[in-house]
Design brief:
With 366 residues, the protein is an alpha/beta fold. The protein has twelve helices and 14 strands.
């Protein structure tokens, strides 16, 4: 269990569901929370996507292709995960107050005030018998925010009592950082650049594997310096935060022609260098970086981050958090905040002009 203590308030039991940009599967987690500064984490599971569905999902990225059947299948897969989870946790639907259903991002263009997460909240509520909150990002983007990242307020709740300034680095398909200052309201968050997506795509193309297990392929290769320099010339790195991007924002063709190992090494170094490039944007250098998401399992990437950041870089398990569960837990927490009318994002987290509420509620359907 992980816990952040706070004042006595109504406590909700919520399930969070996350299908991330890495497209590896559905994460499902249970939390009990007051939606403010008290969080207790519970069971968690992941059900992976089989390759055929992953390809159907990949085919609609960018808002292309025949989206409705993929959205319906995605929703039904989430419903099956919830039913399986309830059986494992020995819970009935009436014992869960809410589901936080992130859906899957197929388009994210905040500069055009557009973001699109497929997933039918009403269909999920009908299939599970549990009220659902979804569509977490649209209101923020419509108000002028980046719509991402949305996890920082959950990080703030969990990090009570830890030494600050602290950075929580989430390395999924895209990487993002939450910077927590010495004061409780000092929160800054933004996407740093690529996470695992470019590495995963490269490894899939050249080896057929879904990812670089423990960074072994990258460890066998050599970084292509000119290629890395060209990748780092992207103007995104000089932009002031808050800022966010889509998994397809990078021209990975720059490393075409390299061997499988050298390409993996170069793209892994690119992710680490992107995080280092975030340092000038932070109000104060963190004393510690806690890493969550799949990237924390890549030993080569973790070594390169430590070399570039020059302070302790550790997986979030070092402080008792579950790095596999964190994003799913966050959307359970955000679903409760949505129902309470509390902000999901702040000017310092998404660049929205004022604290922004969000989410769309779908009631239990009997």
């Amino acid at each position: 269990m992980g816990r952040a203590t706070g004042m006595e308030r109504k406590v909700f039991t919520a399930i969070g569901l996350m299908s991330g940009t890495s497209m590896d599967g559905i994460d499902c987690a249970l939390v009990r929370t007051d939606g403010a500064d008290w969080v207790e984490t519970g069971p968690f599971l992941t059900l992976p996507y089989e390759p055929a569905f992953r390809e159907r999902l990949r085919a609609v990225l960018g808002g292309r292709g025949d989206i409705p059947p993929v959205e319906a299948e995605l929703t039904d897969r989430h419903a099956e995960v919830v039913r399986h989870f309830l059986r494992l946790a020995a819970l009935g639907p009436d014992e869960v107050d809410l589901i936080g259903f992130h859906g899957h991002t197929i388009l994210h263009a905040p500069e055009e005030r557009r973001t699109w997460q497929i997933g039918d909240g009403a269909r999920l509520a009908a299939a599970t018998g549990i009220p659902v909150v979804n569509d977490f990002r649209t209101a923020d983007v419509a108000a002028g925010g980046q719509g991402a990242p949305l996890v920082p307020l959950f990080h703030r709740a969990l990090a009570a009592g830890l030494e600050r300034p602290l950075a929580v680095l989430n390395i999924g398909g895209v990487a993002n950082v939450t910077w927590l200052g010495r004061g409780g309201d000092e929160v800054l968050a933004f996407d740093t650049g690529p996470g695992n997506a470019l590495i995963d795509d490269w490894v899939l193309k050249h080896t057929g594997a879904g990812f670089d297990a423990e960074g072994q392929l990258a460890a066998e290769g050599r970084v292509d310096g000119p290629g890395l320099s060209r990748l780092m010339q992207n103007p995104f790195f000089a932009e002031r935060p808050p800022k966010s991007l889509d998994r397809d924002a990078w021209n990975a063709r720059i490393v075409d022609g390299l061997s499988a190992a050298d390409g993996a090494a170069t793209l892994t170094e690119f992710t680490a260098a992107s995080v280092e490039a975030a340092l000038p944007h932070l109000p104060e250098a963190p004393v510690r970086w806690l890493v969550t998401g799949g990237g924390r399992l890549n030993a080569t990437l973790m070594e390169r981050l430590a070399a570039r950041l020059r302070v302790p870089v550790e997986p979030v398990e070092a402080v008792g958090w579950d790095g596999d569960a964190l994003e799913a837990q966050a959307f359970a927490y955000l679903a409760v905040r949505s129902r309470l009318g509390l902000p999901l994002s702040l000017p310092g987290t998404t660049g929205v002009p004022a604290p922004q509420r969000g989410g769309r509620f779908h009631p239990r359907q009997d």
